[in-house]
Amino acid sequence: MEQLIASELVALLEGKVTLITGAVSGIGRETATKFIEDGAKVVIADIQQELEQETENELELNATFIACNVTRESDISSAVDFAIYKYNKLDIIYNNAGIAYRTTPSIVDLDLYMFDRVMAVNVSNAVEGIKRASRVSFLLQTYTRIKTLAI
């Protein structure tokens, strides 16, 4: 497969509307920064509301923040709806939000509350994001790219 050159990559994102969960720090923030540099408009959906202003200021005009707890279906739905309301489309959803939890070596010591929390943030949020973005894509008769990241 042919490698894309930088100008072709920029062309892929130019004018696109992207929703990125977990984008106020780490991989999500770096992704948002790169997407904006390449011409995309980015909706940052994150639970860390205290970083909203700092994130919007750093990423400037092409970034908008919406508070989003990815363990709540309604928050994910609201984030997708917000992107559509603000930009009239959604081209890319990047399900980046995630948490890490170091498990115990023995199943008998597994903390089921933490297991459920990790699954809700790392797996269920991605499924809900895919579900909601797909519904919008079907309704608008458009194509939405879906990216899920779990590290």
TrEMBL record:
- The lineage's top-level taxon is Eukaryota
GO terms of biological process kind: lipid metabolic process
Q: Name one Pfam family in it.
A: adh_short
> Molecular function (GO) terms listed?
oxidoreductase activity
Q: Which InterPro entries match?
A: NAD(P)-bd_dom_sf, SDR_fam
Alphabetized, the UniProt keywords read:
Lipid metabolism, NAD, Oxidoreductase
Q: Please report which protein family the annotation says this sequence is part of.
A: Belongs to the short-chain dehydrogenases/reductases (SDR) family.
Q: List the protein's name.
A: Short-chain dehydrogenase/reductase SDR
Q: Which organism is it from?
A: Dillenia turbinata
